[in-house]
Amino acid sequence: MTRISPSPRGRGGSLAAELKEFARSVGFHLVGITSAAPFPQAELDITRWLAEGHQGEMAWLTDARARLACRPDELLPGARSLVVVGVSYRTQEPDPDDEGGRIARYAWGDDYHDVMKTRLRALGSFLDERVGGDSRSRVFVDDGPLVERDAAVRAGLGFRGKNTNLLTPIGSFVFLGALLTDVELEFDAPITRDCGSCRLCIDACPTDALDQAYHLAAERCIAYLTIEHRGPIAEALRAKVGEWVFGCDICQEVCPYNASTRGRPRGWTEFEPRHGTRLNLERVLEMDDAAFREVFRGSPIKRTRRRGLARNAAIALGNTQPAAARAVLEHAAAGDPDAVVREAAEWALMRPRTT
Ligand code: B12
Ligand code: SF4
Ligand code: SF4
Predict the structure, then answer these.
(1) Is 98 one of the annotated active-site residues of the chain?
(2) 273 alpha-carbon distance from chain centroid
(3) Is 195 inside a domain boundary?
(4) Does pTM surpass 0.90?
(5) pLDDT tens digit sequence for 54-74
(6) Are 112 and 258 in the same domain?
(7) Whether residue 76 is found in the same domain as residue 149
(8) CA–CA distance, 313 with 344 (Å, rounded to integer)
(9) Is the CB of 238 under 6 A from ligand 3?
């Protein structure tokens, strides 16, 4: 049943204020509300992006999913409002003197999907109780079909940077989530701001994945290559992957919106590093399936499965060439059970030595 308040400034307005206060009390750093109306421009842009093949091997990114992701009113019958939340995952600062494979900040801690969904469901229950117990809602954090960044822009959480990420008043190291509900709430206005003449992210991207402002050729992005791409990584891109073994933060590290942490909330304790901020690559290459599952249980890193992370470890060792890694690379090249890992280790051994 659709719950309609007497007027957006009446019940929906005060309820929105109460809900926002509750969202902040459970730890969300940003919260805004927009309508459940479609996102027609996003649907056009994403459909074109897919037709150009930028999804690479992400076969789950289909036209049908994009269509649905841009039509919240079809995701929940009677949907009226989208409550969009953001939470900082900025915890420690990476130490440039650390050694090992680099992990993108978002994957240092516990799996954000579970952590955020639990608190978003609490928002749904709060709202349901306030309207008498017969509302319906659905939560989204990353893996559901919803254009979360477009929703966040319309809900006033921030604006799109040229690196395609959402830039907010607390920077861009922010996870997004949403609660879609049939309760009508007062909506927020979008922020009208843009990157101006800055293009630091475009110039810093090692693989030229930001081929136009606001447009990502995902098939070249290190985040895609190290996490989503299952087969061998194209040889021309391997050296450019550098030390990254899970995701990439370069286009956010250089962004002036992330320059300072002053006055900004620290990420939730669940997002503090659980394996340090870098991985011991020799140890990763030596892990079997069981060890991989054990070490990365409850971490976003489990998404690559053993094959992906071991392949990435071999490539990063080839790029950094610590002398001590030679034996473990030789062992992997000769006897790793996975052909993709064996091939990456052989490539690493063939790299010209710099020392
Ligand atoms: C698929 C996906 C990826 C893919 C593709 C990334 C991408 N930019 O789309 C890969 C694996 C590469 C990836 C990487 C990362 N991701 Co990701 N990803 C997603 C996911 C699941 C879907 C996004 C999607 O639909 N992409 C398809 C493209 C076409 O969509 P789009 O970029 O939004 O397209 C818009 C613009 O590009 C524009 N556009 C398209 N074509 C054109 C053409 C022109 C000329 C112009 C001007 C504009 C334009 O219009 C489109 C619609 O508005 C979302 C979660 C979700 N459900 O929304 C998380 C999400 C976007 N990812 C997230 C994160 C944290 C990351 C990483 C930072 C992780 C990391 N450190 O490695 C990187 C960032 C890389 C980057 N520079 O974007 C966060 C972003 C939070 C934020 N502050 O913005 C999200 C929202 C997850 C979450 N719930 O927090 N991701
Ligand atoms: S995440 Fe890395 S590879 Fe991807 S666009 Fe940003 S800088 Fe480029
Ligand atoms: S680095 Fe500059 S251009 Fe890129 S997202 Fe940040 S402000 Fe925008």
Answers:
(1) no
(2) 16
(3) no
(4) yes
(5) 999 999 999 999 999 999 999
(6) no
(7) yes
(8) 9
(9) no
